[in-house]
Amino acid sequence: MEKSRLITGIVMIFLGCFLIFLGTFKKVYPTLIYGIPIFVIGIVILFNSKEDKIEEIKKVKGGKK
User: Fold this and answer.
1) Around Cβ 2, how many Cβ atoms within 10 Å?
2) What is the sign, positive or negative, of the torsion defined by CA atoms of 5, 11, 15, 20?
3) Alpha-carbon span 7 to 51, nearest angstrom
4) Cβ(46)–Cβ(14) below 8 Å
5) How far is CA 61 from the centre of its chain?
6) pLDDT single digits (tens) 5-42
7) Contacts (Cβ under 8 Å, ≥6 apart) of 56
């Protein structure tokens, strides 16, 4: 896992949690509109492991036409 993806995911999760708690406890409900998607995107960034795989280039006999 790359360090940049790890840091970005953790920061987005913490920011999302902060906005969700702010929205629920301080009764500032518009922050939930930003907090919930940021939290979900942070989780997706953190646990997406398909980007680490490099696909092999398929070579075609005969080249381009």
Assistant:
1) 9
2) positive
3) 16
4) no
5) 39
6) 889 999 999 999 999 999 998 888 889 999 999 999 99
7) none
